[in-house]
Each structure stands twice: as C-alpha cells, then as structure tokens.
Design goal:
By secondary structure, the protein is an alpha/beta fold. The protein is built from 9 helices and 16 strands. The chain has helices at residues 9-16, 18-30, 39-51, 109-125, 147-153, 211-229, 267-287, 307-320, 377-396; strands at residues 55-59, 63-69, 76-82, 133-139, 162-173, 177-178, 182-185, 187-196, 200-201, 237-245, 251-252, 255-264, 291-300, 303-305, 326-327, 347-355. The protein has an 8-stranded mixed sheet with strand order 1-2-4-3-5-16-6-15, sandwiched between helices. A 4-stranded antiparallel sheet has the order 10-12-8-13, with helices on one face. The protein is elongated.
Length: 403
C-alpha cells in the first residue's frame, strides 16, 4: 500500500476526504453511461456542486462547467475531468459493479469525476485565499472525441489561461505520477471504407464481385503502409476495428463496411498516411473490380504538454508527493480530446498511477472488463488538481504565493 505517512497538508486534506471520494467514485462506477448520454452522471455532479455552493452552467445535455471565484483578480485556470463510460460488460465481482448492462467505467473516468469533485470541495473552502478563478470542467463524450469541442464552443472557457487534466493509469503504481513535456499521446484520424461489388451465388463466385475478399486484401495492404512507407522509428498505427459484410453463408457479399483508426504523433505523418490509405484502398479495390469510397479524416489533435506548465506540474507533484514520485512514461498511441483545449490556452495532462503498490498481481489495462483502480490513488488525484491550481496561480501572478 502507498505510504501516507509523510505527506503535505493538501494531500492530508484529500485523504481525510477520501472516504467521501470513494463513495462518489463507486456511485459513478455503478452508473456508467455512454458518450453524450451521461444523464444520471451529469445530474449527480450537479447535485454535488449544489451541495458545495458552486455555481455551474450546462454544456449541451450533459456537460458542466462549474466556477469557483477566488478572492483575487488573477488568472483563470481550467481543471478537466471526463465523464463518459465504455460499451464493455464488466467482469469484476465487487459490490459496486456496474448496474448498467453492457456499460462500464473501464477507463477510470469514475475516478476522474470523483477526484475533481473532492478537489472542488477543497478549493471552494479556501476560495477567499485563491489568487484566481477556477473553472471545473466535467466533459462529456471524451471516448468519441467530441465533448471538448462542445465545451469550447459554449464560450464558458474562453477566459481560461491554462488547462490541467489527468488520467489514471495502471502502468505505474499508486504514488507515482508521469509528467512529460511535449508529445505524450497520439492524434487520430477516423477511417471509413465502403466497398461495393456484385451479389452472386456462393457456389458460383465468378458471377459475383466479392466485397469480403476485396476487404480482406485491403486490411492486409493497409499494414504495409506502416512497415514499408513510414519511418520505422516513428510510431504510427493503422487499425481496422470493424468489418461488416454479407447476409448469408451462400451469397457473395456485394457490400462491405470497414471502420478503423489511424494514430500519428506528427502532423506531417497524419497528412502522408491519409494520402497513402486513400491510395491503397482505391488501388486494391480496383484490382478486385470493386468500387470504393474511403475517408481518413481528422478526428483528434496530438496531445502535447506545454513546456511552461510542465514546470508547474513538477512543482505541484514534488509538493504533495516527492521528486522520486515523478516518472516519465513514453508516448502512447491512445488519444484524448483534452488536446482540443490547447487551441484555447496552454494545456498539461498528467498520468496518475493506480496499480496497487503492494499487489503481486499485474494490474489489468484500461478498457479491460476487469480493470479496477486502487482507491488510495483518488486522494492523490484530488490533491494534484488542487496543487496544480496553487502552483499555477503562484507562478503566474506577480507577487503571488501558494496557499
């Protein structure tokens, strides 16, 4: 277990509230909801903000931006938590298991929500001493890369000068925090392919034009773009996640629909890979006498941590934990639309360890039906949100000092 013995006052405060944080986290875990359908989740968050006396505005049907106005006339900081869940059937046998069939907080967003609510509680209690205003961003639809844009278009964060977010990760232990300056996560393009052939009897394939056969060849050929057209030391991923075709076992499929994702870490690669995907699909389809439609369009930006905010994050983590707690995870090819906030102001995204420190068993990865987090990590998440705020205001406002 993570040693809570030698911690600073912010973390002690967060741990004193961790029972409430855990209770909240378990409620959200039991009530997961799909992207843009987080109705019960949103209602619960609003109830908690009302209890704390925090004003808020709705964004769309489920997004929320709360406001804590400090006593000073300083900068505005945005703290973000994503609130949607995944279409996964939970396999954990715990008394707070998901009550919603086929849905699960397998990405830890339940921990993000509850930790930000606790951070809001701490910041609200000290608001007269805060050197600026805090915007609490409870964002819908992260899993489909849509919610951050809704928040920005609302105009409610146009005055924010810096955004901080965090994500739990089982790749590191509770008590560790990954802080990296620069690129930390990939950008994505959505891949959509429609193939049109000709129906025929399964026993007479020469009389049809097989969309399944062409689709299979296209999937194989797309992988050659990465292995033969891209720099081998630069991470690039092309994945076809769905392949839908056919109506019966003895009918040549006349249509096929493929959907996938492309992940890159540079905008130059995004442009080059998109062109290559379109070329390969059309050329392979033509070789099979298939008519093809292909889209490989921009979905999410590359997640790039601001260098100046990196130093703020390092100071905050040292303050609540230690210098030894800081690790540096390599770039991951997963995406997060938190990157969209960087179009408004500098942004920084931390990764917080949630693998139980004393456990002999390896932690299940994110998006796994058995994923669960060490609830000792929730207080660390809450404390980081608070200390990011303290350190940012202290470093950004002339004469400012941390609380």
């Amino acid at each position: 277990m993570f040693d809570k013995g030698s911690v600073n006052e912010v973390l002690k405060n967060a741990y004193s509230l961790n029972g409430d944080t855990i209770e909240l986290r378990r409620w959200f875990h039991q009530h997961p909801e799909s992207s843009l359908k987080e109705y019960s989740t949103s209602k619960k968050i609003k109830e908690e903000l009302k209890k704390l006396g925090i004003e808020y505005n709705s964004v769309g049907e489920t997004g929320i931006v709360g406001v804590i106005k400090g006593g000073g006339n300083g900068f505005v900081i945005g703290l973000r938590a994503d609130i949607d869940a995944l279409e996964i059937q939970e396999q954990n046998q715990v008394n707070y298991k998901s009550l919603n069939e086929g849905l699960m907080h397998a990405c830890g967003h339940d921990g993000h929500i509850s930790s930000l609510i606790t951070a809001a509680r701490i910041l609200q209690n000290e608001k007269e001493h805060l050197l600026g205003t805090v915007k609490l961003i409870f964002q819908s639809a992260e899993e489909i890369g849509y919610g951050a844009d809704l928040i920005i278009k609302s105009g409610l964060v146009s005055d924010v000068k810096a955004f901080f977010g965090l994500h739990v990760t089982p790749r590191i232990k509770t008590g560790q925090v990954s802080l990296v300056s620069g690129i930390i996560m990939a950008g994505a393009n959505n891949l959509k392919i429609e193939l049109n052939g000709k129906s025929g009897h399964g026993a007479q394939p020469n009389q049809g034009i097989d969309a399944i056969f062409a689709g299979s060849a296209i999937i194989q050929s797309l992988q050659q773009i990465v292995s033969r057209e891209c720099d081998p030391v630069e991470p690039i991923v092309i994945t076809v996640g769905t392949f839908n075709a056919g109506t019966r076992a003895n009918i040549i499929a006349n249509k096929a629909f493929l959907n996938g994702t492309v992940r890159v870490v540079t905008e130059e690669s995004r442009k080059n890979v998109s062109k290559a995907v379109k070329r390969v699909v059309k050329d392979i389809a033509a070789a099979f006498r298939i008519k093809a439609k292909v889209e490989c369009e921009y979905a999410t930006p590359i997640v790039i941590n601001d260098t100046s905010l990196y130093h703020v994050a390092v100071s905050a983590t040292k303050e609540i934990l230690s210098e030894e707690a800081i690790v540096h995870l390599p770039v991951e090819m997963v995406t997060d639309d938190f990157a969209v906030f960087s179009t408004v102001a500098p942004a920084f995204y931390a990764k917080v360890g949630v693998a139980a420190a004393g456990s002999e068993k390896p932690a299940y990865p994110l998006h796994h039906e058995n994923f669960n987090l060490d609830e000792n990590s929730l207080a660390i998440c809450s404390a980081l949100f608070v200390e990011f705020t303290h350190q940012y205001f202290s470093s950004s406002i002339p004469g400012g000092t941390t609380i």
